[in-house]
Amino acid sequence: MKSKWALLFLLFMGIFLQPLFAQDALISHRLGDFQSFKKEDHGIVIKASNAVVSIQDYSPTIISVRITQKATPEDSSWAVIRRPLSSFTQITHSPDVLTLTTNSLKILVHKKPLSIEFYNAAGQWLNGDDPNLGVEWQGAEVTDYRKSSPDEKFIGLGEKTGPLNRAQHAYVNWNTDAYGYDINQDPIYSTMPFYMGIHNRRVYGIFFDNTYKSFFNFNTSTDSTLSFFGAEGGAMNYYFFGASTVAGILQDYTWLTGRINMPPIWSLGYQQSRYSYMSQQQVMDIAHKMREDTIPCDMIYCDIDYMHGYRVFTWNPSTFPNPKAMTDSLKAMGIHLATIIDPGIKIDSDGYEPYLTGRAHGYFARYPDGRFYTGSVWAGRSHFPDFIRQDVRQWWGNNFEILVDDGVTGFWNDMNEPSAWGQDIPPLIEFGEGKNIETLKKARNVYGMEMARATYNGTKELMDGKRPFILSRAAYSGIQRYSAMWTGDNNPTDQHMLLGFRLISSMGLTGMPFVGMDVGGFSGNPTPELMLRWMSLGTFMPMFRNHTAKGNTHHEPWAWGEYAEPQMRKDIELRYRLLPYIYSTFYESSQNGMPVNRSLAIHYTYDTPIYDQRFENEFLFGKNILVAPVTSEQMISRVYLPEGEWYRYSSGKKLKGGTAYDVPSPLDNLPVFVKAGAIIPMQNVIESTAQKGNGILYLNIWYGKDSSNFTYYEDDGTTYNYEKGDYYKRLISFLPQNKTIDLGKVTGSYESRFQKIQFVLHGFPDLSQVQFDDSSLAITKSANDGQEVQSFEINNQQDLVEIRW
């Protein structure tokens, strides 16, 4: 009897103590003390008690820190495309501190225990490790605990729900299929582990380049002076950015991770989509109705029902019998076709070439024993390409030949988190080959980006010098090099609409400028009022796509009745009138990483009200247009205008900045404001970017007291010839103190499609004439969108132009 109780006691103790022993097995340790260091070409390597630390000088304002437990960290990245360019200007060594200096930063490496702090050139503290916690491992999990200011603001992290200011919030990065996600749900589709901290009129940035499941916690502790980030595996690998402005940090971050290529101009027009247009005839009916109702449109999408049994790289022969004839007809109307492509390859041995080739060459993700992983998606039981491998990416890209030959120019990558129905993909699934085999734990967050990379490179190679349009749902930092994005399967509610603009702005703060959302919401039916409001706001998104799910009401403009269609047409027409401004703004993004939709935190970083939840949805469209998203029910809305002077776009009324206003916001009058001094190039309304228009560039200028400038950019919009200098670019300057408007000399070899330039002056003093080229030009006074403006016209010439009044 005693032996029985003894056995039970031992069994109980074993069960009770097992978790404790398991915790002990997770070795916990920190960096320990500094032991030694050695210099390298662009930095130093430090040996500590429990770690090796590499600190490299990428530029005077970009420092990389890589920390591992055993050996010098391997310098490899899916996101980073640059190598270190600089060397520290000075390295000083004392008993307590190792000091590294650049022209812009000072890095202090404290020795006991080892921790790192960053200061600007003026000696002001920016950010650094918490001296008592610092970097810590719990088994494979690594975390960096950092000091924060009590009132510090945190912005960025890409596609994250919640407020603009991330303080007092925590987030996880693990790319997730998040159908109908809640406005506070986390994580969702993509991973962009880059953020900026703002305190004491200083800014800094941190990019935690680790593709494992990662986590960020911003000042949620009770004393509000501790933040931390980490990951379930891999190295503590981050880049510190010390430029003095948010814009400067963004420029550095996108230098490091890449910037967009110029998109095809037709992808910036209006896009009409639905899950699904079920047949070739229905696609053509939509296109003809667009032209019949004179609604500008440049793209129509085919969702999964165009495929044969949901097999990617196929057409349904019954419902899409002649896709080439369809795309030829669309092209004649100035409309491009985009088709959806999911990663899952249906298991089908009956002549389905992508499956047969992929199986024969071992191109699919697999278990450690070599068996291919099988998951269920739209096509049924499917295998998933191993996009981590370059040869698989090449094979995937080659498969697009059937679509490219049939005239498809847009390629929509969906389900690429990756997503499989009814199951979590096992974490032991392997990707890569040879010495570069990784499990899903490390590969998941980059899977979608590498699919987009394969799609972009493949279609670019197949399209004979034409630019493809790629759209991706999942991503990692660096996605901007290959693809546009959208915010996934959103809901048809006012709050989801507002969230969408925060997501777009946040992705802009993380280097991703080309983003849209499903106008009207995907997973249900919006009210007519919400649809009207959303379409008005869609005008001011980098990507303007109307999309909804199967079974929902139709979203096409004519589906909403006789009152709604004219208003939606007017909104889309404004989009097309603004295309010269929008395209020039995309050019700016390609040069310096500035997003198209800009959080006010970029230009008005220290203006406290912009972080107020009443105003956090506001954004700049380019650098000169402020848009204040409001719900479908708000006929009067509270709007905050930052410093300076602003004009209400619809009325021309001038308002002083630094103040909040209650402004009318009926469904046909979105709160949109233009900064005094703004230069906005526009064109006449066209039905497609394939049309030439009337040959007049309308250069709208809103009067202000301060000087301003705008870089106007133009190219053919469809090829890569701009990379060889075939573009038209000129600097336009408004100089009110000199009473002049200057057009700089044109650079580039492209001949503008605009033969004339009409200057449209808003809010200027009353003028009777202006001086140009030793002659006087008469001023015409007229109504423009209900406002009185003054205008005059000149020929578009290559040389320097000075207009005096």
Task: Describe the protein's architecture and organization.
- By secondary structure, the chain is of the alpha+beta class.
- It folds into four domains: 31-257, glycosyl hydrolase (family 31) (Immunoglobulin-like, Sandwich), CATH 2.60.40.1760; 259-412 and 444-465, Glycosidases (TIM Barrel, Alpha-Beta Barrel); 487-673, TIM Barrel (Alpha-Beta Barrel), CATH 3.20.20; 679-804, Golgi alpha-mannosidase II (Immunoglobulin-like, Sandwich), CATH 2.60.40.1180.
- The chain contains 13 helices and 54 strands.
- It is globular.
Topology, element by element:
Layout lengths: L1 H24 L2 E3 L3 E7 L2 E6 L3 E8 L2 E7 L21 E4 L3 E5 L3 E7 L2 E7 L4 E5 L5 E4 L2 E7 L5 E4 L12 E5 L16 E2 L2 E6 L2 E7 L5 E5 L7 E6 L4 E6 L4 H12 L12 E3 L7 H13 L6 E4 L20 H10 L3 E6 L3 E2 L6 H9 L13 E3 L2 E4 L6 H9 L2 H5 L4 E4 L16 E2 L6 E2 H23 L6 E4 L2 E2 L7 E3 L7 H15 L6 E2 L1 E2 L8 H11 L5 E3 L17 H14 L1 H14 L4 E3 H4 L15 E3 L3 E3 L8 E6 L3 E4 L5 E3 L2 E6 L7 E4 L3 E4 L13 E7 L5 E7 L13 E8 L4 E4 L12 E7 L6 E4 L2 E4 L1 E5 L2 E9 L5 E4 L1
Parallel strand pairs: 15-31, 21-22, 21-35, 22-23, 23-27, 27-30, 30-32, 32-33, 34-35, 45-49
Antiparallel strand pairs: 1-11, 2-3, 3-4, 4-5, 5-20, 6-7, 7-8, 8-9, 9-10, 10-12, 11-12, 12-19, 13-16, 14-18, 16-17, 17-20, 18-19, 24-26, 25-26, 28-29, 36-37, 37-38, 38-43, 39-42, 40-41, 40-43, 44-45, 46-47, 47-48, 48-54, 49-53, 50-51, 50-54, 52-53
Helix pairs in contact: 3-4, 6-8, 10-11
